[in-house]
Input
Amino acid sequence: MKLTMRSYKNDEDYWRIREFLRQVMLSNNRRDLSWHVTRWDYLFWSVNPDAEKIKFEENVFLWETESGQIAAVLHPEDRGHIFLQIHPEFCTSALEEEMIATAEKHLAVIGRDGNLKSWVWIDSQDNLLKEVLTRRGFERNEQAWPLEYKHRRSLDEPLPGVPLISGYTIRALGDGLELLERCYAAGLGLRQDDVNVARKNRDHPEWYRSLQSAPLYRRDLDLVAVAEDGSIVAFCTIWFDDVTRTACFEPVATLPAHRKRGLARAMLTEGMHRLKHRGCWLVFASGLSEAANALYFSVMGGEHDTYEPWEKIIES
Output
């Protein structure tokens, strides 16, 4: 079938890509072999406005059928880190070859070593794409970037009870000034007690208000662990897509002074109970660090896929 490539045009394409990712997930039997719609929302509403500021019109490319159906999408998550989303019905080596050539031409960036590079992230079981990347001179490189573990757990199975941890309460994020407390906690939890980042997050909470504007955001699934003094010491935001009946944990963090007390495990377990009550079938979480993966394996079990980075120096 003939496909036509074009650049991203406007917000209508954002909404069309969301629906495309849902259909891809359903076609892949709810395996996390492509992006969950949550990750696309997170890029659009949080990562890009707050940090990357990538112009979608210059960096996102769509392949469509003659009738206008999306067959594939090529895009970065941050500069130079490239992902291919392909509907399995249209997946061919010729299409992948064209997408990789487009990535090399339009999405390469200057790396830390001064070379013009591309990094393509692929599912570790995607042998067809590996062959394409190898032909085009890419090599797998886990020294520069760690593997991304994509954990999953079925909620059809019995769930353990939510641990009770003395001195802490697990609940949904509150209203009013607690938003600022949550912003402050993000700096401490995600940036290893970086008070400067925490203060900046609190003084400029627009980034979190943008996140709360995302289509899948639900206050009842934005969980926090609160200490006896009322301070937020851990957090876990959950994104539930009722079309695919799947969900994602992102982000999950505990402030350094309150770690190793089971707070993250308690939030994840509470989250799974809430999701199951709302009709969710499957939950995902992505881990890049050893600590994060240990947590997710302990709570979610051993089922997982992995993304691996492939690198090419375009010009030295």
About this structure: The two ends are 37 Å apart (CA to CA).
